[in-house]
Design goal:
The chain is elongated. Helix content is 36%, strand content 32%. It has 90 residues and is of the alpha+beta class. Strands 1-2-3 form a 3-stranded antiparallel beta sheet.
Length: 90
């Protein structure tokens, strides 16, 4: 008999743009815990102002950071179970 486990995790992203700077905060909620990470982007003074590009870059950086934190948390969970240091590749 196959056991099935289904769960939903939610990622919420808040983006703030101000004076050529874009800041994103990504928050992962699920499995009884929350992780978050920030990403930033700034407008080069010689570039055209296209807010969507700053948003994409800031959010992308926040999500990459969030993924890294999730992998690090997973490694710590495995280390606690196994009682020894381990490496989890990204």
């Amino acid at each position: 008999m196959t056991t099935r486990h289904v769960t939903d995790w939610t990622i919420r992203v808040r983006i703030v743009e101000e004076d050529g700077q874009t800041h994103a905060r990504a928050r992962l909620e699920g499995d009884g815990r929350a992780l978050f990470c920030y990403g930033d982007a700034r407008l080069n003074p010689t570039d055209f102002e296209v807010p969507e590009i700053g948003e994409e870059l800031a959010v992308g950086r926040a999500l990459v950071g969030l993924g890294t934190r999730l992998i690090e948390a997973t490694a710590k969970d495995i280390e606690q179970i196994e009682g020894r240091p381990i490496f989890v590749s990204p």
